[in-house]
Each structure stands twice: as structure tokens, then as C-alpha cells.
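Hello Y.,

Per our agreement to keep a running log of every chain we model this quarter, I'm adding this entry. I've kept the format consistent with earlier entries: sequence first, then predicted structure.
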Amino acid sequence: MTATAHFTGDANPYGGGDPYADYRTADHPFTHLVDLADRRLGAGVIAANDEFFAERENLLKPEPAHFDPERFGHKGKIMDGWETRRRRGASAERPHPVDEDHDWALIRLGAPGIVRGLVVDTAHFRGNYPQAVSVEAVSLPGSPSPEELLAPDVKWTTLVPRTAVGGHAANGFAVDVERRFTHLRLNQHPDGGIARLRVYGEVAPDPAWLTALGTFDVVALENGGRVEDASDRFYSPATNTIQPGRSHKMDDGWETRRRRDRGNDWIHYHLAEEADIRAVEIDTACLKGNAAGWARLTARDAETGAWTEFLPRTRLQPDTDHRFVLPVAVRADQVRIDIFPDGGISRLRLFGSLTERGTARLTARHAELGG
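Predicted structure for the entry above:
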């Protein structure tokens, strides 16, 4: 584990104006990856030992933490994060908490995967953040209860050892543990508040589940698809196009800046594994005056590396789900969508099934990661 942007100490008290003006942050090298703790993937904070001042569920809200200086409740200041009460020692002679005292929250990842980096965000917790944090991870099958996760025979792996953090800051940690995990335990020492937790990594799907499904969306994030690259991420990330469900607002899709040249925009995807694609959906939901005008799809043959067009340049309509049944299955491990000339799409779905070779490779990788 390596801290990629290390902050310590209090931030200044809020003095008015933009509360993010003095927010401490940095470019973390892993934030282009999928957030495995995204609520849209099904993640949740399933338990916490204390949430006296602010609820544990706030940790996984997709938007940045909000600060309202005038919002108070019957327990005190209402914060947009997870905040516990102040710990106390055992007696007047020992008023301070002991070194082992800490608060914890259990997080179910939305999709099991390999964790490459974390951000423990203490936005707006300027003098009431934890002195230090630590993060552990485990992989358990099924849907274990908090009691099952906390059983004495469950072995947790440390992703972030106990490390001092700063207030009102995006505390980043790179993780170098090549294993598949399903749950995390976030610890704050000894107490305090954390606004958001982001868990960046790679989805590692269960090949037995995908085989049982037969035909499924082979590029979906939840099934192990990912974005390799994109020409433009100005308004929103390309990863939005393979999130679960339909887009419900404009910034929940992918939108590029307006082009002033003769080029076009594109996204390059890697599928869950080599698959035979049989049907396609290109959705422009909520993109009404800024949808792409046309789209084209090309696929890479995993064996030869050759790229072949399988959906020629096709007119798109605004705010519409376009469906195409392919005349023959297209075998590929990577796909690229080109949009013309710019604009955006909200979702791309590629329905198909894994090939024998794709299933074998995915199964081997699953075993290698301890799945």
C-alpha cells in the first residue's frame, strides 16, 4: 500500500463562501477505474458500530458531499457523511480512548473485484475527522450478514494499514493486493467523520454465474466489461455508458464537448472476455439536443487482432433506445463505438455469450484471484 496523496492535520474552520475553496485534493492515478462501491452497482453500507451524528449510508452517495453551515438537528450539526460520537476513556483518571478503540463500517461492494485504490474523503470534516483510518477486505460467497462477516473465523486482508489522515481532504491510497474481494471494513481511529468512500478497481465476475446466464450484456460493468480509452471525457465519464439501468438524467451518460474540427469521438471497450455478440442497444436517453448524430461499431478478433465493422454508420435519434439484432454473431474481445461528429450516448449494451476460450480464461483468472 502506498499513499498517493497524503494529508494530515486540521483544515481551517469554515469562513464562508465556497466550502470547497480550501479542499485538499490531488490527481490519484486510479480514479479512472470503476468505483466498486458505487450504489448503482448495488453496493451498500450494511452495518456500522456507531452513526450517532450522521448515517453510514452517506458514505456511498455518488455526488460530492454537501455542506450547509446552518443545518442543525437535535443531536447537533448535520453532516453529509458518516460521523460517530466522541469516544471517551474508562474513568476520570483515564479520560482518553485507548489505542485499540475505533469505529467501523461494513461495505458490500456492488461488484466483486480487485481493489486498485481507495479515496477516504473527509470533505467538510475540518476538525472532527478521524486521526487515522485503516481498511480491510474479505471475499465471502453469497450474501453474508454482518454477523457472518464479523465471525471470529473470518480472515480479513489489510488493504490500508492504520494511517494518519487529514481533515477536509481526499486521502488517496494505492492498493497492491492481487485478489478478488466482496466486502470491506472501514475503520476510523478512534472516532470522527468521513464524508465519502470510493473503491476503485476492476470487476472480477463469477464465471459460473455468467455461464448460467447464457446470454447477457458482455460489456456491462457488473459483468466485468470496462472502458479502455475514450476520445473525450469533458462533461461526463465514458464509463457511464456501461452502468446498470437506463440513464435518468443527462449527466448519467457520456457527453463530449462540441467539436470544431472534422474528426469524431469514440469509446474503446474491453468485454468481460471473448464472446459472441448477437444483439446491440445504443441508448440516447435524456440526450435531446446533444445526442450523437450517427454511430458505428467495430470489433476486434481476439485471435487475429483484426478490427471489423459490424454496425455501419447508423443514424441515431435523440432520447431513444435503438435496438439491432445482428444477422450473424460477431466474435470479439474488444469493441469500439465511433459517434459522428460529437455529442453523446447514455448506454451501450452488447448481448451475447462467452466463447469456450473466453470461459476458460475467465475461470482460470477467477481461481487465480482466490474466487
